[in-house]
Design goal:
- It is a single chain.
- The protein is an alpha/beta fold and about 240 residues long.
- The chain has one domain (about 10-230): NAD(P)-binding Rossmann-like Domain (Rossmann fold).
- Helices cover about 40% and strands about 20% of the residues.
- The protein has six helices and seven strands; from the N terminus they run βαββαβαβαβααβ.
- It has helices at about 20-30, 60-70, 100-120, 145-165, 185-200, 210-220, and strands spanning about 10-15, 35-40, 50, 75-80, 125-130, 170-175, 230.
- It has a seven-stranded parallel beta sheet, sandwiched between helices.
- Strand 1 (about 10-15), helix 1 and strand 2 (about 35-40) form a beta-alpha-beta unit.
- The longest helix has 22 residues, at about 100-120.
- The chain is globular and about 50 Å long.
- It starts with 9 loop residues before the first strand and ends in a 6-residue tail after the last strand.
């Protein structure tokens, strides 16, 4: 049975050096987990171990995940969380190039799948895997084709992997607008995010800590798999 607590569980967060991933790492440390953060640098939240990785390089992913497993007393990873994504703004559809598609899908979708595959030899029998999509998967906008397509692909992958990798559990967190560095420096983004938040039912945009609660749920609820967990302040309404 999956533990309902993260105490002494091995948690690996790919993309955990900033934003949502960093908040997940901190929350897991606070719950007593042994946390390893994989990112562009070996930077890690207090209480976590950091390993530098190139998420677009399969060999680098395999090496980093093997190292992460070795840090666990059991030699296994109990929970794999993937929060990586592209920070570049997509061009309008009329100007979209194949290279734009390959870069964006490579960073968020292909890298996530390769990370899960590389982790398989190191995952505990009933490990959890939590992927990250976004509300544009199901909210059409005039400029959302590329991001919406990637997020929809992540959600479809999550459901299929939940079947194929059982009894390991696979879930997807779908964030709305969250106050992170993706939106620019704090001085530049606050007015814009306040405007966006005023149009949401909850009256504000999300924080990384709001999202971290959802990842903790996905890790600790042993009866949840194949789920898309929307944490978006009512943005899909």
């Amino acid at each position: 049975m999956t533990s309902k607590t993260l105490q002494d569980q091995s948690v690996v967060v790919l993309g955990g050096t900033a934003g949502i991933g960093q908040a997940v790492a901190r929350a897991a440390v606070a719950e007593g987990a042994r946390v390893t953060v994989l990112g562009r640098s070996a930077q890690a939240a207090d209480g976590a171990h950091g390993i530098a990785v190139d998420a677009n390089d399969t060999a680098s992913l395999a090496s980093a995940l093997a190292q992460a497993a070795q840090l666990s007393p059991s030699g296994k990873i109990d929970h794999l969380v993937i929060t990586i994504g592209s920070r570049t703004s997509p061009p309008p559809f009329a100007a979209l190039q194949r290279a734009d598609l390959e870069q964006a899908f490579g960073t968020k979708f292909f890298a996530a799948l390769m990370a899960v595959q590389a982790a398989l030899p190191h995952l505990a029998e009933r490990a959890s895997i939590t992927l990250t999509s976004g509300l544009l998967s199901r909210k059409a906008t005039a400029t959302g084709l590329l991001r919406g397509s990637i997020n929809a692909a992540v959600e479809a992958a999550g459901k299929n992997l939940a079947k194929e990798l059982a009894p390991r559990r696979v879930n997807v967190i779908s964030p709305g607008v969250v106050d992170t560095e993706v939106w620019g420096a704090p001085a530049d983004r606050q007015a814009m995010l306040a405007r966006i938040g005023s149009g949401l039912p909850v009256g504000r945009v999300g924080t990384p800590e709001d999202l971290a609660q959802g990842y903790l749920l996905a890790m600790t609820n042993g009866f949840m798999t194949g789920a898309i967990i929307d944490i978006e302040g009512g943005g899909l309404l």
